[in-house]
Amino acid sequence: MTHLGSLALSLASLLALYAIATSLWGVLQRREAWIASGTHAAYAVFGCVGVATIALLYALVTRDFNVEYVAGYSSSTLPMRYTVAALWGGQKGSLLFWTFILTLFSTIVQAQNRTKNRALMPYVTAALMAITLFFLGLLCFITPPFERLALTPTEGSDLNPLLQNYWMTIHPPSLYLGYVSASVPFAFAIAALATGKLGDVWIRTTRRWALTSWFFLSVGNLLGGRWAYEVLGWGGYWAWDPVENAAIMPWFTATAYLHSVMIQEKKNMLKVWNMALVILTFALTIFGTFLTRSGVISSVHSFTQSGLGPYFIAFLILVLMVSIGLLLYRLPDLKSENELDSLLSREAAFLLNNWVLVGLAFATFWGTIFPILSEWVRGVKITVGPPFFNKVNGPLAVLLLFLTGVGPVIAWRRASAKSLRRNFTVPILSGVVAGILFFAFGFRNYYAVVILSLTGFVLGTILSEFVRGTRARQAILHENSAQALSRLVAKNPRRYGGYVVHVGVVLIALGIVGSSFFKIEKQISLKPGESFEVGRYTLKYGGIKNREDAHLAAQAAEVAVFVGGQQIDTVYPEKRLYKRQNQPTTEVSIRPTLREDLYVVLGSYDAPSQLATLQVFVNPLLSWLWIGGLTLILGTCITMLPSPAERQALALARTPAEVGARVVTD
Amino acid sequence: MRFHALLAVMFFALCSLAAASLPITQEIEEALTCQCGCGLTVHTCNHLQCGFAVPAKQEIAKQVGEGKKQEEIVATFLTRYGEKVLSAPTTTGFNLAAWITPFLVVLIGGVLIGIVGLRWNKSRRQNEPQKPIVSSEAEQYREQLKKELENFEN
Q1: φ, ψ for residue B41 (rounded to 5)?
Q2: At residue A150, what are phi and psi to the nearest 5 degrees?
């Protein structure tokens, strides 16, 4: 089966090369047959990569330890769900998985556009197949996943215990979906530049792809944070690790793009800027994967150091040269057709929003690569850690939060003093009330209270938008409030779905501020029966329970939780030892509520003295971070719904026969 | 333009408010990177029996107890382990570029947006046609249309 896999990858490489050549040749010769052949070859590439992926999965599931990758990332005792997840647990498997998703998306793009965008599609095919060819080249020549060992070990080395976690089974696929789907708007942007068809067609065609990329990057980052929170045991969820930064940078630029593209659609402005953002987002996905795989910057997340760095850098340089070259060539044709009417307008607010988001991406990029720069320039290794990113990105994020409230409510073109008063009075009041309430509830850090007030302000702007729209429908169409609200959203899912996304972002900000500024932590060693206080909780340690199976051995501490003298729960934080890798891990016990999370870690246990060391964190408002994530997901799904115009077009496309019959009858 | 100046003032005011008020031992622990390979600060290192973080915390607590200042304690670790032990770059020499560059880039970006925006605004005002002389009735309808458009957009 693995021989089939290797063969499939080689065939896929040849077919990808063929697809590029025939697509471009077909355009030059104006021969549809060649272009069609290129499209068919792209489908075949997906087929071949699919076969290779199935082959590696088969080897994993059948525990074929003669395959080096299988021996390195699984074992006979590894639960099946993690055995499947091992496909993306290692360098080679994850590259194959990336390629599989890329070819799947290429196939979907071909199918979606089989009767439209015919001028663009040959270039889109060529661009997507060129990216695929790069990854196939790595898989065929540099890091082949089907290498066999000279001797078959009796047992595999097992998957890293830190990856044997539910969140880790879904976090990498989500991120890869986000990274890879950024290739589609990029391919269309290249096609638009190459053909000179620089209107809105390529933007409208790729809007949902851009949204898909943004969605999966959001989910991937949130899942990564959840994994870090549950598994790493330090009480936090984001450490500005280089690999985390690699995932957040394209998210910043993709967010900027989703906003600035609205200005191009409404006013035909910022064409160059939007092109640049699409190119930058794709480039950052390649840069991100370079960071993760090259080992140039050490990270707890990164794959082992490999020789892939130079190839990714070379590919990135090629991508940038081609993209920027085409952009400069088409610059005269990308001139804006309109201008800003006022600096006090939604367009200006969106510009500012872009300015801050790209600033955040740059600051994160700069902090991530600065250690390398420092070593080149001064020969001195330095660290750029959380204190740097918190101090630099924090204020920018606060500014962004403020703009999140201003943007949706300020008028297009020019906001008058009257409209500003009308639209911002209630939100400002809600912000002030929120600040007072948080202060009254004991949140006494002034910076944090200002930010928390901003969350009230932003929620106020969003709520007023929903209320205003619902009331207008009720007044004009005499609908009840539930009907009016649901139809308001259905009539403009993009706008109101976007508002729901903003609510999600605000809730995430709430969780971050609460848990960052008001965290309580305590570390204590105690014997069974002893208790201690942390925050409003009293925790009583009851002793250790041991359990063991073929895969791991675990020690669980029994800890009773009291508030005001009443027992409200019992938690069981664990220390585990995964036998195959002889690696200890912590299994944190988390008791989440809307008010705060109680987070208990068993640090160590000394059997002779029965002394257990517990580390306890109280993280205020942290649950709102995950609730915000779910809200963001809901909002994105709403924005993806077809608008009334799209629904009508779909309905017409589905029933041409009926229409024809009616015409004949009439 | 006044709105944007207000925005800038708020932004820098927020920056100055952002100074955290943590216990001194925690501040020092956050200023140092754990050398065990976890990538976290000494304070947040998740290895409870960490060979670096545990003795480092003990030493920090001891030196704070002896009355030493934060800068002195950090300098001790800096001398012993080199710059890589600091969790953020210093603000001297080449390292200053780490701090200044992001704000400089954001500032330049903001200035460019302001210049482009003002230029567009000026060009629009220069290109606005002279108001034709119209009858009062037509003017009334124009005002009404303008109000309805504003309401529609808002």
Answers
A1: -75, 170
A2: -65, -40
Give the closest of B94, B114, B120 to A377, CB-based: B94
Query: What is the tens place of the pLDDT at every residue in B94-153?
Result: 999 999 999 999 899 888 888 877 776 666 666 655 555 555 666 676 777 767 766 665
Q: Can you give the pTM of this predicted structure?
A: 0.89
Which of B38, B46, B86 is closest, CB to CB, to A382?
Answer: B86
B40–chain A nearest CA distance, Å: 7
- The end-to-end CA distance of chain B, in Å, is 22
Taking an 8 Å cut-off on Cβ atoms, the answer to whether A339 and B84 are in contact is no
Does residue B42 belong to the interface with chain A, where contact is any CB pair within 8 Å? Answer: no
CA distance to A96, A593, B104, per residue, from A6 (Å) = 11, 50, 50
Domain ranges of chain B: 2-88, 96-153
**ipTM exceeding 0.85, yes/no:** no
Would you state the CATH architecture of domain B2-88? Orthogonal Bundle (1.10)
Q: What is the dihedral of CA A207, A212, A213, A217, to 10 degrees?
A: 140
Q: What is the DSSP letter of B131?
A: P
Q: Which residue of A has its CA nearest to B115?
A: A343
Which pLDDT does position A1 carry in this prediction? 78
Low-confidence ranges of chain A (pLDDT < 70): 295-306, 337-343, 411, 413-416, 653-666
Note whether B54 contacts A: Cβ–Cβ < 8 A. Answer: no
**d(Cα A38, Cα A353) in Å, to the nearest integer?**
41
Residue with tokens 């954001």: B106
Rg, Å, chain B Cα set: 29
pLDDT of residue A553: 87
Judged by a CB distance cut-off of 8 A, whether residue B98 touches chain A is yes
A529 Ramachandran zone, left/alpha/beta (phi>0; psi -120 to 50):
left
Distance of CA A10 to the CA centre of its chain: 31
